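Case study 2.
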Amino acid sequence: MKHPDDDNELFDRLEAEMNADSGGEVVDLDKARSARTESADPTIRPDTDPSADSDTAQSAAESDDPTARVMVDRPTAKATVPGYLGRLAAAQRRPVVPPWLKSVAELKTATAWVARHYAHSLGYHALRSPIYAARLTLQAPSGAAKFVGGTMRWMADREGEPVRLAAVRREDAAEYLKLSRQRDGRVRLRTLVMVLAMFIGLGAALAIYVLAPDWLQALSVGAVVMALGYAGRKADDPVIHRAVELPTAVKLTSDIVLRALGSLGIPAINQAQAKGRDGFEFTAPITRDGPGWRAQGNLPYGVTVTDIIERRDRLASGLRRPLGCVWPEAVPNEHTGHLVLWVGDQDMNRAKQPAWPLAKGGLVDLFKSVDFSTDQRGRWVGLTFMYIAAIIGAIPRMGKTFLLRLFALIAALDPRAELHTYDLKGTGDLDPVGEHVSYRHRAGEEDEDIEYAIADMREVRGELRRRAKVIRSLPRDICPESKVTSELASKPSLGLHPIVICVDECQVWFEHDKYGKEFEEICTDLVKRGPATGIVLMLATQRPDAKSLPTGISANAGVRLCMKVMDHTANDMVLGTSAHKRGVRATMFAWADKGIAYFVGDGSDARIIRSVYVDAPAAERIALRARKAREEAGTLSGHALGEAPEPVASGYDLLADILAVIPADEPKVWSETVVARLAELRPDVYDGWDPEGLAAALKPHGVSTIQVGRRIKGKVVNRRGIDRSHIIAAIAERDGKRDAG
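Prediction:
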């Protein structure tokens, strides 16, 4: 018997001889196969002896040999996949009860819509019922003729005549005789049925005529006439028209979604569909979501939701839906390839909004969320007005001023809030709030309007400093987070009530040749420090660029609302740097999308909203209601009561006053010393100023504070201060410009 190792011994001898002759290498295929299949460690190289110690194999795999092949997917990798319980713990459970049933407001809205629909239909048809009866009566003769003719054709078996004629044309005698016998049987049976029906019908008619009361006779005759009239109707002229034209939106299906995604021209999706795959992985069934359909799933690897948003117009074409109905969006806390596609039944700008609850009654607490808009699905979207600074940007005629007025109305409905409203466009759009509620109000951009506004903003900046000191002095148990709360705002003794400043066309302020820099400094300070002290600044502009909306303000505003803009620069100025690249694009809105905006802030990602529309008469009614609430609370003051602001000390000049308090023998003085001396010089103007405020007030004049060293008790102390020569130079430059002017 041949030993199994004989072949191996022969092979080894031949291998050695061939290597000695040619230097080549002969591979034992059996050994190679067994090494691949029997090796338990995939990191072992194919030329390694499988019988070697596993530690040796591991050290070879972890060695620095650059030629060593290491498998990246180890067999133990499967052990790191979460188990069944782990997957259950991380699973997202769909709600048992639909969200619209959990919301009392949404349930009431849906119920009201249904009730109004059927009430309208009932009233529509009830009013037109005499016309329906008259038309049916006129059509009754035609219906009677159709009924008699149809009955005669049925009795004569006319429906089988084409088949019998076909048998005659084929000269098939047997088939024709068979069909004729069938026809004779049908005619006899149908004639018998008709005779019986005539006797029963005539008998019933005679009984009703003799025995039935008049109302039943009239009802019977009317029913017969109406039935004959219905039978005589024309297909293209129905008697009863629809009271409500329901949307004819096609149900969204997977085939429609895949077709639309395939039409976008994205290579990864097209390649997948060309290979017989879908190119989109549905992660949930397509369901009804509000007034539309919702589909969600994963895009192919490397394709993001932004890629879909960029092609929204082509997606709408692929879905065969209006652009305002198609809203692709990303999902927070999901990967960037997870797409949620919502397709509405009706264009967003044409859909009817639910009634705004505050339009007819109620007050608000600015420290709580207040509904001011709806999303694409018609759900309410709210905003907490405190602790924010807001920017509204849009091209003209898109609803920017209406939205700012809506915010002012909401603020007015909190009786504690102090409003400062400025309509720099001068058309009086903010007058309903300003004339009835505002503490300070102005419409226009004349010199006196700007002087009024700068004086007010200086006063607000002083109030900001006072509030900061009050908050700092409060005990931790009363003010634990060092900011104004609703409880603190309700205590008149502290003076921490909300202050809301609304400025329309704010670029007029920042571009002013005399006070532009000072407006910028004050507003930047309010945006940064105001929210914690209960001061809210809301700016609206139709030119969102670096000049009309300084970057120091736009970069620190926590709430941004952007309606239609024309380019990515304006888009990013309002919504934040790189917003356009991330797919947050207000440039995609159409001209008809009035009041529709991208909303960023209030603790959520960018979303599309449609603001509540409040026209001038409705705004007037709401403002009067807010005024009444303030009169009852005793908080109405300022412009709304006809009180003019206290006159500011006339003729004061900051630069001249600084020179007056810094003698020539003191070339450099600490800012705190200057502030103290200014307060002694003009207490009504400079009382409450601090070094930071002095530095901010000097910036518009082109003067910056410097480090000033003083030796105190043998040690040099450095603090911010003023160089007197800088003040002199600034005065000379200013006076020179005035003389030139």
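The chain has five domains: 4-75, 108-231, 255-344, 390-641, 654-740.
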